[in-house]
Structure formats: structure tokens, C-alpha cells
Sequence to fold (634 residues):
Amino acid sequence: MSRIERNIEDLFRTLFEQFKVNPTQGLWKQIQARIAWKQFLSFSLNSFNVYYLAAAITLAGAGAYFMLPSTGSQMISEAAGFISAENVVTLAEPATDQAIVREHLPTGEQAPVEKVEAITVKVADTQSSSRTATEQKKSEPEFDPQKNNAVQQKETETAATPPEQSASAGGETISVPEAIKVKVEFQANPMSGCTPLAVNFQSLSENADGINWTFGDGGNSHEPNPSYVFDEPGDFVVTLKIMGKDGGEYSRQQTIQVFETPKALFEFDEDVKLTKNQPVYFYNYSRGADYFEWDFGDKQRSDLLEPIHYYDKAGSYHVKLKVWTDKQCYDSMMIYNAFGSQEQNIKVPNAFTPNLNGPTGGYYDVNAYDNTVFHPVINGELLEYQLKVFNRKGVLLFESKDISIGWDGYYNEQLLKQDVYIWKLRGKFNNGKPFVESGDITLIKQY
Amino acid sequence: MLDEKEIIEGCCRHDRRAQKALYERYASILLGVCIRYSGRRDEAEDILQDALIKVYFNIKYFAGKGSFINWMKKIMVNTAITHYHRNLKHHYHQDIDDIHEMDIEGSEYDSADFTREELFNIIKELPQGYRMVFNLYAVEGYKHKEISDLLNIDVNTSKSQYSRARSLIRKKLDSLKKIAEKVDEQD
Fold:
């Protein structure tokens, strides 16, 4: 993470912390209306108010109005049906609510009673219609329970909605007073260390159903006892979240400290001939380290960043660099047989310019600088030697087991095109040390 | 004027006065959150409405742990994400290849150099997906893993969208800075 990235984040975070936009006028009215409507639908303890009662009465009234043309007595039972529906509703409500209902109920009862009176008058007027009225009255009780059921169903449905809303309320922890003792606890081993840090977590929770670990660096797990490797340095807040058997959500947090592990890296002048009074420069490319310890392989040590060392005599030495930090995170690097390859080594060029006048047979003069033949430069005595050259398609173009013969850039008497070719070199030095190397060589036509 | 505790308790009782007090006190800052996600005022107010309804009907689940305003902000963010999913097909889609990005490392930004409105205008002009990821990651501090779960996208999509959003923003911040410097020179 560069400093710039963090700056953009900080910039936006600080400025948007108090970013205010004034809502348009009338938004509150809309919200208020929606609250009222939703409260009306959800029909909770507090929302049983005058609105609902008004709606119930209107509905009853409307029902009564539509039934009126057919007969009067049907309407009586209709109205009675609604009142009984009202009763069912109030029964489902907690006891406190009944007090409110009782206050209002009489008005509901009164209205139909008045209508009953009016209807009896009507009945007296027309005999014929009263007969059909009694017939329909008989069939009415079969209707009523259904209606009541329907109302009841509606009630149970609306009553079921509030828990759903709570589920959609967003990722907040909801604590519920528990009957079951739920314990959330975990231990981590180790609590701190160097990258990459493998930590074993153990959940000591009790009465947990669901279990969820978040490790603070984006990783998570559902195992009860996970092992987790922190690759990056930093303080990571590990959170254990459990679903208790009582339905509540519990969490516990602990911080794991992960320290940066340094990286040891160094180079030195390989080309110096080791003699007395010849300084050897060591270049330190280590990262993240606070302390250094050099071991030059000749029983001499140094704790400098980039030491200059004088070897007493030529030879091969094991040079070792150990680095560590304040937090005791360390790394080391060792070069075996430093300067040892000075006597026997191979160097291979990466380009050559063939003789354009015709194949030369590959003989070359070691001291010539015309660079018309491709050949490795060997320091040391060889027991075995083999050089192969291929083109891009893998066709073997040249092979030699004689160090004095290199490749002249020709294949079947034809000069090859300017391109990159692949070489493979294998052999053995006279000290028994084998070598296998490969690489590429560019053929350049120089006119 | 009611204090925060009274407002919460009042809203639990569905007290009108408390509900209104909550609205008057927090609506502007909550709308600020919504508009960051939506970029458009009308849509942001829709989000605010939906989210406030959730706040009013679920306030009893706010256990008093942590800050009330952050709890509400979280609900705003979640609601904004729901809206984002719902309206995904309606939004103008900008192809990733059309965006010319230039990621130049360089200047640092001081919060004194920019106003909230300038930053909001930058956020507003971001493509929808970038805006969601940038808001969630940079401002709200979500992790890419969490964002990928919330928005139903791959973790790497979240990361790449964030870095593209950041480079776009950086470009715009730099141009704003240049304009400001020019104005300074003229004075």
C-alpha cells in the first residue's frame, strides 16, 4: 500500500464523515405516511389505534350498505359477523389492548342496533320480503365462520411480519436475554509472531450453533478449530461470531500481532582476485531488517550494514548474512564457495556475427576479437564437453564435443537468418564437478 | 429538543414526536450517505425513505451497543446496496474498455484542498459499480471479501474496480488541484 492510496481513502473518509445533504421539503410527510400505513398493516400493540377502528367500521358499514338491497336481516348477521371478527382479533392481542377495545366497542355495537330497529319497521311493511329474509338467515351461519377464519388468517399473517422485518434490519447484532447459558470464548496460539504466521485457533464456546471466524485480513472460516496463516504484517482483529442456541448472536475479539519478517539479500564483487590488502565490497540488499551479522567464512565477523572485508588468502569461503528485527524476526542468506569458482568457470556470450563469406568450420582463435564463431569461454580443465545449438523449432543445427570447435552460424553450408538460437552446454571439470547450462544466442548479420 | 436516548426510547414506543425528532436531527447526514451511493438526489431520497422505515420499525433491536448514527448509517448502506441490485439493469452501463486510465504516482492530497462538494461531484460521476466499491472500501472501510459478498461479485472484481475507481479519482483530484493553482496564479 503506497502512501498515496491511503491518502485518498483518508481524504474521503474524513470529509464524508460529516457530509450532509438537506432533504427536500415534504420528504418527512411521505415518510410519516408510510410509517402510519405500515403501522396500520403490522397491527401491533401500539398501532391499534383510531385508524384501524375507523377502517373496520367503514368496512362493516360498507358491507352493510351493499347487503341492504337484498334483505335487512342478512345485514344484521353480517354486522354481527364483523363484530365477532373484531372479538377474535382482540383475543389475539395482549391483555392491555383489550382495555382500548372495550372503550370503542360499544360504538360498533350501537350502530347495528339502530339499523336493526329500522329494519324491523321495514319488515312490518312488506311481508313477502321477510320470508326470503328468514330463508337467507338460515344459510347465513354457514357463511360466517369462513369469514371469521378469513379475518383471523389475515391477522396471523400480519402478526407474522414484524420478525421478518427484523431479519432485514441489517447486520446489527441483536442481543436477546438468554435462558440457555451461551459462552463465547476462544484461544489462539501463538498470539504474535513473524510472517508468515500460522496460528491455531480453538473455540471454547458453549451452546453454539453456527460458528464464524473472521481473521481481520479478509479471510474467514466456519470450522470450530481452524488454523490460519497470516501472510501480511499488521495487527489483525480476529472475531469469533457464534449463533447461540438461544437464537442470539455473540462475538468475541482478540488481536493477533504479525510482525514483518525481513529478507536477507547480498552480493559481492565476484571478479576480484583475492589477495592480501585487496578490499572486497559486500552489497546489502536486505529488506525490513534492523540488525545485521556477517560471517565472512574466515572466522571474521561484522555487524555493519555494508562491510568491506580483506581476506588473507585466496580460496573459497562460505559467506553468511543474518538479519533480524526488533521483534526477533530473522532471515539469513549464505553463499557457498564464494570466490571458489574463480579457478574454474564458464562464460557464454549472447551474440555473434558469422563470417558472411562461407562456413569456416568453427575453428577459432581464443585471442581473436572478431566474434565470428560462437563458443563458450572456459576457465579450467575439462574432462567432458558437449555443445548443442537449436533453432526455434527445435531442430539440432550444430553439435560439438571439441572445445576448440565452435559454431560458425552455418547449417548445411547455408548461412542461417538473423535470429535467436538456443544452446545447451554440458560437461565436467577435472575436479569432477559437472555442469549443465543452457541459454540463447543471437545471430547478427554484420555487413 | 430531545437527546439521542430519548429519541431512541420514544421511537421504540412509536412516539410521533420522537420519530420526527430523529428525522430532523439525522436526515441530512443520512441523506449524505445515501447520495454517495446513488449519486442522484431523487434516488437517494427513495433510499433514505426505505431505510428510515427500517430504522423506525427495527429500532428496538438496536441494543445500544456502538454508536447509533453508525448503526443507522449501516442500514443506509445496506438499503443502498439493495437498491443497487434492484436497479442494476436500468443503469447506464459503461464498458471497462472505454475508460482510459492513467495511474500516475505523485501528489499527496490534503483535506484542506478540497471541499465535500467537490469530492461528492467526483463520486457522483463515477460509474455505478465503481462508486459502490469505492464507497464501501474507502469510506465505510469494508474489506474486499465483504464487498464481494455484499455486491455478489468476485473478490478480484472488487479489487480491480476499486483500483480503477481510485485512479479515476486521482486523475480528477489532480485536475481540480491544477485548476485551483491556476486560479491562485491569476490572483
